[in-house]
Amino acid sequence: QVQLVESGGGLVQVGGSLRLSCAASGTIFRIGVMGWYRQAPGKQRELVATLAPGGTPNYADSAKGRFTISRDNAKTTVYLQMNSLKPEDTAVYYCYADRVVTTVGTFNDAWGQGTQVTVSS
Q1: pLDDT score at 2
Q2: Phi and psi of 44, rounded to 5°?
Q3: Where are the alpha helices (DSSP H) in 44-112?
Q4: Which are the contacts of 54, defined by CB distance < 8 A and separation ≥ 6?
Q5: Burial class of 107 by CB neighbour count within 10 A (0 to 12, 13 to 18, 19+)
Q6: What are phi and psi of 6, to 5 degrees?
Q7: pLDDT by residue (tens digit) across 63-118?
Q8: 77-82 and 67-71 as β-strands: parallel, antiparallel, unpaired?
């Protein structure tokens, strides 16, 4: 199975910034859509942003204008630059990848373990 490893979460004050990173481990030939979801305590997991290899970013309304999703040249790493953070951004952020082609096979719906983002008011 594909391993997605997130990093960059932490505690930040209102209005601050964080940059999340997510990298797929192992030998990766290519990955389709990658993105970020988040889940706050007692809430459903929700989409934050996605980006296809040659596509344009898609953002949740809550993220648009504040967050920027990007990928590296190999398209195996995805980033989420978060600016102007608000308390309602507090959640566990999960990396997502679809159609991950490896030496073992092709895997869909890969998820990272999550990284905590806490925005203090």
Answers
A1: 84
A2: -75, 155
A3: none
A4: none
A5: middle
A6: -95, 155
A7: 999 999 999 988 899 999 999 999 999 999 999 999 999 988 999 999 999 999 99
A8: antiparallel
